Amino acid sequence: MKISIPQAAPHVRNPGRVPSLMTTVLIALSPITLFAVYQFGWPALNLIGLCLLSALLFEILCLYSTGKPLDTYILDGSGMLTALLLALSLPPHAPWWIAICGSGFAIIVGKHVYGGIGQNPFNPAMLARVALLLSFPVEMTHWTQAAPLLSTAAPSFIEGLQITFQSSTAFDGLTAATTLGQLKTDLSQGLPLQQLTEQYFQPLDSSLGLTAGSLGETSSLLIAIGGLYLLRQRIFSWRLPTSFLGSLLLLSTTAWILAPEIYASPLFHLTSGGVMLAAFFIVTDPVTSPCTRRGQLLFGTGCGALTFVIRTWGGYPEGVAFAVLLMNAMTPLIDHYVRPRRYGRSRTGTPIKRPLWRRIREFFYTQPKSPSSGSDK
Amino acid sequence: MKLFGFRGGVHPEALKQHTADHPISTLPLPAALYLPLQQHVGEPAEPEVSPGDYVYKGQLLARSQGQISAPVHAPSSGTVVAIDEFPAPHPSGLPVKTVILETDGKDHWSPAWTTPTDPWSLRPEEIAREVGLAGVVGMGGATFPSAVKLGQSLQYPIHNLIINGSECEPYLSCDDRLMRERAPQLIDGIRLTAHALQAKQATVAIEDNKPEAFAAMSAAAKGINQLNVIRVPSRYPMGWDKQLIRIITGREVPVGARSASIGVCVHNVGTVYAIQQALCAGTPLLSRVITVAGGAIAKPQNLEVPVGTLVSEVIKYCGGLNEEPARLVMGGPMMGQIVPHTGVPLVKGSSGVLALTAREVDDGPERPCIRCRRCVEACPVGLMPVEMAARLRADDIDGAVDYGVQDCIGCSCCSYVCPAKIPLVQYFNYARGVLDCRQTATRKAQQTREMALARQQRLASQQAARDARKAAKTEDKAKNNTKNNIKNTRPASKNPDRPASGDDAGTQHKGAAANIIATDSRVTDIPLQSEQLS
Amino acid sequence: MITAVTLLTLIGTLLGLGLGAVNRYLPVKEDPLRESLSALLPGTQCGQCGYAGCRQAAEALAEGTASVNLCPPGGPLLVQQLGSILGREEDSSDAGSRTPVLAWVNPDLCTGCTKCLRECPTDALVGAAKQLHVVLDDACTGCGACTDVCPTEGISMQEVPLTLTNWHWPNPQHQDSGPPKQGAV
Amino acid sequence: MTGESVEAYLILLFGTALVNNVVLVQFLGLCPFMGVSKKIDAAAGMGFATTFVLTLASASSWLIEHYLLAPLNADFLRIVSFILVIAGVVQFTEMIIRSLSPLLYQTLGIFLPLITTNCAVLGVALLNVQRAHNLIESLLYGLGASLGFVLVLVIFAGLRQRLSLCQIPGLFSGTPIALITAGLLSMAFMGFSGLPSN
Description:
The structure holds four protein chains of four kinds. Chain C is mainly alpha-helical. Helices cover 35% and strands 8% of the residues of chain C.
């Protein structure tokens, strides 16, 4: 058995593999996807299917053009994951070209321009969502009231196709602003907040996902279940979601206590918009978040704070996407400056000093010249 | 005993059940033994015998030379066939100078052998000297000469002698069996080493997945108050000496300093057994216990093997290979070295022979890194393998050094947990190789500068001496002319040092450069020719 | 028009005075570049870089007229160091990348003419008139100056053999082009 | 310094740093932004040098505008005199850096004198005049603009340092990928639009 090329240790490996990692995350996303399809009916299914298909197509195109082997790369599922996350953050009645542009932007500019998986500085799904939000504001903020799949109010299959492909307004459905959007417009008219929140914010509904909103961001409970499953599978460390939700909670509570008539309640912040989906699936994206424990805490806190700032004072109702992108831009800096302490070295890298009493004792310690009495030690 | 926290580490499947229950059996004496001269850290040993000599068992084959080295003894009686290049147990398969000994099967000791004096009456430095003469080296795999380690540790007050019985590598169970079957000798060895180091107390650390070994050692250690046997969590790399120091004493060894400088000394169980054999039984390090395991071995077991046995002999004794192994590994699967073929000898530092099948190696296709940072969590030294590997892939060695690649101990935790199956340890070995080349290159450049300077000074001093002689000659001539100016003018005497061709002056007079080289021990004296140019 | 001219001259003189004053208080250290460069060069004055000696080569490098891989004895490491100091990423194709070589004297051809002894910048060649010459491996920098002067073509440059001490793990990326393997038994 | 004027100053400072960031929103000072952002340390060095120059220049340009140009109503001289002052300040900074840390002077190289031509510096000075800031406001505006410049420069340097390690397809490697990343970064910064900033 002739070994032509020496292989270094180790000679046994942990059974985990990259594709199994990705499929576990996709499984964790399945409850939300099914609920979204149930909640928003056929257009939702069309959108998700379109996103996944076009992502696969673009992935193959990019891999082929950069000459990478198709089999090992296509099966690692990262393209599917990005597409699903993007689909879940789109409004349910978005037209078909939004889905294709979004997944195209995510896969090509978000990932493959940087050389494929593992090398993109920004989270592709959030990148595509922000790009769509900025370039097609109308379609991206066209929300509809949730209507269960087979109920009368829900569009039938054919109508679903019409909504997605011909963007027909035949079925105008009950358009309604998300709680966040509603809050933003009312606040700007100077209405006191308490009166507003009673009208349209029922904490239970919003956590169960009965309110309007994009596909996957409505029901926070289902997202939490998926997230906890991933936590138990040790796919990501608990530090990222807890620091993200924690900092958002902290800021919103202090603001809410100081001036309840201006700032929304913390529960409102947590259950509305894409916070929960981001906390367990976007912020924890391994490629674009820092590697060290303290770095992750810093990253999560930064995302939470920026989300709060943009939501409260910014121009856009939903701040999570921008916050995540900004912190992704900070990640190389965090990894550069925040490093674990190395064995035998202080935090700045210089070898640690031995305690003074040991150095003094050693100074006075003379080697045992005299023959010891031979008694056993 | 309170244990302290530690960082990183992985939890590979122990897979020791195949060999843990087999008692240590001894290998019948092989026909030939191949003893490399470089079986330890430091200078290779200098052969004492020449081909054709008859040697007895335990006779000195090669003595240690230089500051850090260890002697090599004959594991059995026989004739020395040759001393030349033979493939070394190393991934590259390159040869090393080896003493090839044909055993005659009689295996009898040299008549000059005497029973050793009572070890308990020896002074610490005498114990260190005896251990040095017996050729004992670190058996955990580091193979650092133990005598030098004992000597170095004597300069510091040693508070705690830690005996490393953790054996955290999967598959290996040789230390486990050693502790179960030879606990009394081990305890004697520990007390002798503690005496040699003047250590206040000794602690035997055994992983909690070896209860029988713990029971055997505690029973043997009952009644000795400064010696306690403790369980440590079984988590690779518990066998890393600095990890043991951190978990038992809570302190860390400063980088670049010896562990003795914080009052701790760590020895492997095998080393302590070898010390006991050398001092009490008077036998130098001739054989060692190894584990032969792996999916491809018919009957995996633990074996007491003379040093220098070929791997093929060992595998043949264990029932041969029942399938073609994907990798043949010397040592454990995590830090062991691959060997190109079975025709390589076992050395003092080999703790096991593994013939791993493709299933066990499970070498999936290497995928691009997705920065999942499991390697950062797993690294016990606190490095960032993901950043170092990214820089090394882009050939940025200085960037990797900035992230601490020179601190990497090669424990393979990061490659083990990497889901993308990236050979991280080979990247870091490659980086250390490049740093090694740079260091030798800078040292060589420095040496070149010194020699060039020395040469210029030599040429300048020769030139000055020549001018002085010429000036003195013209002055004598002037004096001669004035004294006998009536004598006929003789032709100009032949100038003894006719300027050589070209602008260079004077013949070579091997002065400065040779002195510099002469200090190098290997260059013999060069007879210095007189000035005359024939 | 007058105001424009006076105004600008006023601002100009004000700034000029300020800068002149500041210049006197801030000592500008002598250009350390030349010293650091000549400290790096091997100092063998072998002249293979086309300059009279290492100091002249350092000056040329400092002024930027010389390329970074001008010094063959320095090898690839020197090219890297000079490149990093001068901030220039010259390709190290010719001088830098060849494998390390040592001179070797062919015993049959050496007549003991001592011509090569004078050429060697580091006295790596030893031997006396009419005696066999030999190369001290530790001292030889592989500069090749001796090979051209040997009348009997007795000195040739041999590649340093691969042994356990100078074998290193290859870069996993270009795994197949690792260092040449010794034929195993 | 009444309460709400402090708040106004803070809003001015953070507004110029984040909301209408000099580089990513007003697209000023792009050449050092692309030129010096290869290494984080060089970027930080360049950033602080520009901060020093920009704050000093915006203050001195206000003084010149207020005490020299306005009374002699020589507004046509504004750009020339501003550039003269900025050049002076840059020369002054270069002398300081050369004597304090030759290494930084070495790494910044040509980009140190090029701060004079950095359009952010002249831009901020002219904007100060256009928005009729008083001395403190123009100082804060200069400081805010330069803090924004440093922040974005260092972030971008971090990104580029990581990009230098990636195997980017041939077509995009080098400046193209840097420009794409800068574009995406400015897209992310648009999240701050709408925050109060006068």
